[in-house]
C-alpha cells in the first residue's frame, strides 16, 4: 500500500518546459514515475521529453486521464496553477514552488476547499512512494521500499530521515513533504492520519519545526486516535530566537506553544516518541519496531 501516489498514478507537470520543470520531470521519468505529459500555455501540441505538451490542465486531463499534477510554475502564477488543476479534476496537486505570495495562497486555499482534491505544499519537496512514483524534487536513490511513513515540513530532513530508516533495514512506505509556508494544503495531522490509516505503514516519522500549531494538532489527534503504531517526532529550530523567521516562511515563533521546547513537550504529552537530534531518528524507529 501507499498513500497519495503509486505506480498507477498518472502525473502531469505544470511548467513542464521551463528549466525547473524540465530538469525534475526528467528525473521523475528516469525514476520510473508515470509522467503522462505536461502543461505550458502556448506550447500545446509540441512534445517535450518525449511526452505531449498541453495548453491547459483541462486538455491534459481529457487526453491522458491524469489524476496527479506537480507544479513548477513561477510564484506569481503558481496559485492560479493550483486553482486550474482543481477545476480540471486533478485529485492530488503537489506545489513545489517557493515564494508564492501569502495573499495568493489564501485565495487558492479557499477556492479549492470545496473541490475533490488534495493539495500538498507549496514550498515542499513533494511525495515519493519508493519504487513506484517520485513526484517531487527529492533524491530518489535515498528511498527504499519498506514499512515506515514520513511526514515532514523540511525537505532536507525528509531525505535525512529516510536515509537513516533505510540504513536500519526498514525502508519507507510513502514520504510526504508538506512544505514550510504559512498557508499550506495538507497539514501535518492530515498527512499523519493518511499514514496511520495505511495498513502497510507500521510506524510514522513526523518532522516539524518552530512556528504554528501543526505538530500540536497532529499530536493531539494521534493520542485521540488510540493508534498502537509508534510515531517518532523531531522538531527543528531549537536554537532559533523568538520573532525571527528561520529558513521557511512559516518557521517563526510568534506565540505560546510555538517554540521547539513547547512543541516537544506537547508531543511527549500525547505519546509521541521525541528525539532531540535528527541523527537519532533511524535508531529510535528501529528500537520501537524491534
UniProtKB/TrEMBL annotation:
Pfam family of this protein, just one? Answer: CoA_binding
Instruction: Enumerate the Gene Ontology biological process terms.
Output: tricarboxylic acid cycle
Q: Which PANTHER family would you find in this protein's record?
A: SUCCINATE--COA LIGASE [ADP_GDP-FORMING] SUBUNIT ALPHA, MITOCHONDRIAL, SUCCINYL-COA LIGASE SUBUNIT ALPHA
Q: What class of enzyme is it?
A: ligase
Q: Which Gene3D superfamilies match?
A: NAD(P)-binding Rossmann-like Domain (3.40.50.720), Succinyl-CoA synthetase domains (3.40.50.261)
Keywords in alphabetical order? Ligase, Nucleotide-binding, Tricarboxylic acid cycle
Q: Which GO terms describe its molecular function?
A: nucleotide binding; succinate-CoA ligase (ADP-forming) activity; succinate-CoA ligase (GDP-forming) activity
Q: Which residues form the active site?
A: 248
Of which family is this protein a member?
A: Belongs to the succinate/malate CoA ligase alpha subunit family.
Its UniProt entry gives the catalysed reaction(s) as: GTP + succinate + CoA = succinyl-CoA + GDP + phosphate; succinate + ATP + CoA = succinyl-CoA + ADP + phosphate
Q: In which pathway does it act?
A: Carbohydrate metabolism; tricarboxylic acid cycle; succinate from succinyl-CoA (ligase route): step 1/1
Please list the residues that bind CoA: 17-20, 43, 96-98
Tagged with keyword Nucleotide-binding: yes
Per UniProt, substrate binds at 159
One GO term describing the cellular component: succinate-CoA ligase complex (ADP-forming)
Keyword Lipid biosynthesis appears in the UniProt entry: no
Q: Please report the stretch or stretches of sequence annotated as the CoA-binding domain.
A: 4-100
Q: How does it assemble?
A: Heterotetramer of two alpha and two beta subunits.
The name this protein goes by in its record: Succinate--CoA ligase [ADP-forming] subunit alpha
Q: Which gene encodes it?
A: sucD
User: EC?
Assistant: 6.2.1.5
Function as written in the Swiss-Prot or TrEMBL entry = Succinyl-CoA synthetase functions in the citric acid cycle (TCA), coupling the hydrolysis of succinyl-CoA to the synthesis of either ATP or GTP and thus represents the only step of substrate-level phosphorylation in the TCA. The alpha subunit of the enzyme binds the substrates coenzyme A and phosphate, while succinate binding and nucleotide specificity is provided by the beta subunit.
Amino acid at each position: 500500500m501507499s498513500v497519495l501516489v503509486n505506480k498507477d498514478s498518472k502525473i502531469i507537470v505544470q511548467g513542464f518546459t521551463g528549466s525547473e520543470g524540465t530538469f525534475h520531470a526528467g528525473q521523475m521519468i528516469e525514476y520510473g514515475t508515470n509522467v503522462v505529459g505536461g502543461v505550458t500555455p502556448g506550447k500545446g501540441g509540441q512534445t517535450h521529453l518525449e511526452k505531449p505538451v498541453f495548453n491547459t490542465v483541462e486538455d491534459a486531463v481529457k487526453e491522458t486521464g491524469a489524476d496527479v499534477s506537480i507544479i513548477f510554475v513561477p510564484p506569481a502564477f503558481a496559485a492560479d496553477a493550483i486553482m486550474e488543476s482543481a477545476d480540471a479534476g486533478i485529485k492530488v496537486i503537489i506545489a513545489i514552488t517557493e515564494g508564492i505570495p501569502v495573499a495568493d495562497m489564501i485565495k487558492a486555499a479557499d477556492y479549492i476547499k470545496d473541490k475533490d482534491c488534495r493539495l500538498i505544499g507549496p514550498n515542499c519537496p513533494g511525495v515519493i512512494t519508493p519504487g513506484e512514483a517520485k513526484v517531487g524534487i527529492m533524491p530518489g536513490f535515498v528511498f527504499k521500499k519498506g514499512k515506515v511513513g514520513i511526514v515532514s515540513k523540511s525537505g532536507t530532513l525528509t531525505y535525512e530521515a529516510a536515509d537513516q530508516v533505510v540504513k536500519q533495514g526498514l525502508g519507507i512506505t510513502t514520504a510526504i513533504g508538506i512544505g514550510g509556508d504559512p498557508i499550506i494544503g495538507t497539514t501535518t495531522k492530515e498527512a499523519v492520519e493518511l499514514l496511520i490509516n495505511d495498513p502497510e505503514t507500521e510506524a510514522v516519522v513526523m518532522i516539524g519545526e518552530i512556528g504554528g500549531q501543526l505538530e500540536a494538532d497532529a499530536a493531539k489527534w494521534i493520542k485521540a486516535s488510540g493508534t498502537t503504531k509508534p510515531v517518532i517526532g523531531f522538531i527543528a529550530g531549537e536554537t532559533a530566537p523568538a520573532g525571527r523567521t528561520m529558513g521557511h516562511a512559516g518557521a517563526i515563533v510568534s506565540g505560546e506553544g510555538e517554540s521547539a521546547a513547547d512543541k516537544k513537550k506537547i508531543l511527549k504529552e500525547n505519546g509521541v516518541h521525541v528525539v532531540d537530534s535528527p541523527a537519532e531518528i533511524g535508531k529510535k524507529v528501529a528500537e520501537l519496531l524491534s
